Amino acid sequence: MDDLASKSLLPNGLRDGLPPDAAHEADIHNLVLATFAARGYERVEPPLVEFEESLLNGAGEALALSTFRLMDPVSQRMMGVRADMTPQIARIATTRLRKAPRPLRLSYGGPVLRVRGNPLQPDREFRQAGVELIGAEASAADCEVILLAFEALKASGVTQLSVDLTLPTLVPGVCAEMSLDAAKVRKIRVALDRKDAAALAAIGGQAAGMLGRLLDAAGPVEKAMPALASATLPPGPAAERARLIAVTEVLQREAPDLVITVDPVENRGFEYHSGLSFTFFARGVRGELGCGGRYLAGHAGEPSTGFSLFLHNLLRAVEFPPPAKRLLLPPGTGEAAGAALRAQGWVTVAALAENAEMAAEARRLLCSHFLVGGSPVAVASEGEN
Amino acid sequence: MRANEPLVMALPKGRILSEVMPLVRRAGIEPEAAFDDPSSRALQFATNISNLKIIRVRSFDVATFIANGAAHFGVAGNDVLMEFDYAELYAPVDLKIGRCRLSVAARPDLIKQDDPSRWSHIRIATKYPNVTRHHFAARGVQAECIKLHGAMELAPSLGLCRRIVDLVSTGQTLKENGLVEVEKIADITSRLVVNRTALKTRSEELGRWVDRFREVADAA
Q: Which residues of A touch B78 (CB under 8 A)?
């Protein structure tokens, strides 16, 4: 027994997907990717492992601390296991697909691995599914991806969705404009990350005062926008604010059932983002369902945006589908007969040996029905799942 | 957790509670009678607000309940927030109560000939191992922390270690145990703490409570 137990122990943050959860996750994965495909986002499939220097280049740099490394015994070069797929898609778009017409719409889905989870989300391996829209500066691109994420989440069955919009360049822009020294900027950053109004006020100065007002403004869009609109911003952040205003108007019109909040000073999780970014939440569900935003792809710095949905969190936000109707077929059932039943929507399970008690056998194999004289009969209720 | 369930407010047991309750009451929240009944063993309490209930837990657990979304908002000192540094916690309002300091203290006779610039490693008894490690790491010193849950002041006199990191308000407890405060790590006050997801998804109702507590704290 000890031996069995020790074999079943997995490393921290990793787990086995079992029935029916594994099938459910795969269904949702396929469903969101189909939603992306229907809007012209074409699937790409990057490798799980790449050379470290290309994986952690550009947008990937922020992920260096989260990336597992291993030595390639063949090339003797260091490789990294992807911790996020976005930098890989940006690499593909700006290298092998550099001649493809812009804007380029790509979609992707697959597992990522991180060195550590956090105390609240211990998962180290999880599945991402997302899109990237490469070479698109217009605010219409931001609207498109946010509305697409909303559509995909709704299609998966998530209700009471809200999106939090943020401008990751605003705080650095304001600090640079007021030419604050690095130590002070770091203190401001920590205070803002903790949303700690008292710590921010204690730092003092014009920047802290203004950021403090923006911190207080975070909340429902109706409350946050006037405060944000009246703030005096340097040109870079001001342009992003104009984008935020334009995008908010479209979202309010096109997605009236989506709750919009604005948090101008949010930064955590947006280390490589260069403009308007967003996070999706569902009421009562712990953790983010997905996030994304603007970044610069490749050496040429193509303006791009996109998002990833986090399947492990998404699964917590959706109702489980009713169990499939499983039908136990007696031994010797012909292929054609089985196929006809499957065509009617049955999941068929073949009994491999004769059994006098087919009803009991069906219950033992978690089937809801068994076949009597060619037609399905429900298993008595105590055996139903 | 599902949609229209009541909001849950987590309050810390003990010392701070007597300072917190006047603010809570001024914000218009009145817990049921059992809350003030010392013989009651209840942990959850209804309030005069139909959609709001209160839980009373240890101060470190306030942060854990709220970070995990099991409570939506509550009151915690920034000592607790610094120790956990949960990304899911927001601390939008300084309630300006529970004022004290998080400090390093030591027995003067044991550290008299000590030269801090030569340290590579020190032993410290504390309830705050993360804060302590960070604080000393910032000056290139490795802090080996002995985690205690209380009665920190005993540790140096019994030879467990030479220093402790703990909350200090008047300094009386330190003095009684032959310790002196040698360095302040941070000023501490209690904060109104909010769960990030709850603030984003129930921003209207939680935003109202945040504003209410901000008014009450500013008026105090």
A: 196, 198-199
CATH class of the domain whose range is B7-98+189-219: alpha beta
Q: Give start-end residues of each CATH 3.40.190.10 domain in chain B.
A: 7-98+189-219, 100-188
CB contact under 8 A, B91 and A194: yes
Residue of A nearest to B89 (CA): A194
Q: Where are the beta strands (DSSP E) in A167-289?
A: 219-220, 259-262, 277-282
Which among A220, A287, A288 has CB closest to B207?
A: A220
User: Under an 8 A CB cutoff, do A215 and B92 touch?
Assistant: yes
Q: What is the pLDDT of residues A91-105, one digit of tens each?
A: 999 999 999 999 999
pLDDT tens by residue, A63-120:
888 999 999 999 999 999 999 999 999 999 999 999 999 999 999 999 999 998 877 7
Helix (H, G, I), strand (E, B) or coil at A190: helix
Question: Chain A residue closest to B96 (CA)?
Answer: A198
**Which chain A residues are within 8 Å of B185, Cβ to Cβ?**
none
Specify the CATH number for B100-188; select among 3.40.50.880, 3.40.190.10, 3.30.420.340, 3.90.1300.10.
3.40.190.10
| A13-158+279-321 CATH fold | BirA Bifunctional Protein; domain 2 (3.30.930)
DSSP B125-153: EES-HHHHHHHHHTTT-EEEEEE-SS-TT
With CA atoms as reference, the chain B residue closest to A191 would be B91
Query: Which residue among A164, A279, A286 places its CB closest to the CB of B68?
Result: A286
Compute the distance between CA of residue B163 and CA of residue B182 in angstroms, rounded to an integer: 9
Residues in chain B closer than 8 A to A288 (CB atoms): 197
Bridge partners of residue B121, in order along the sequence: B142
Domain ranges across chain A: 13-158+279-321, 169-265, 326-383
Calpha distance B13→B17 (Å, rounded):
6
Q: Could you give the ipTM of this predicted complex?
A: 0.81
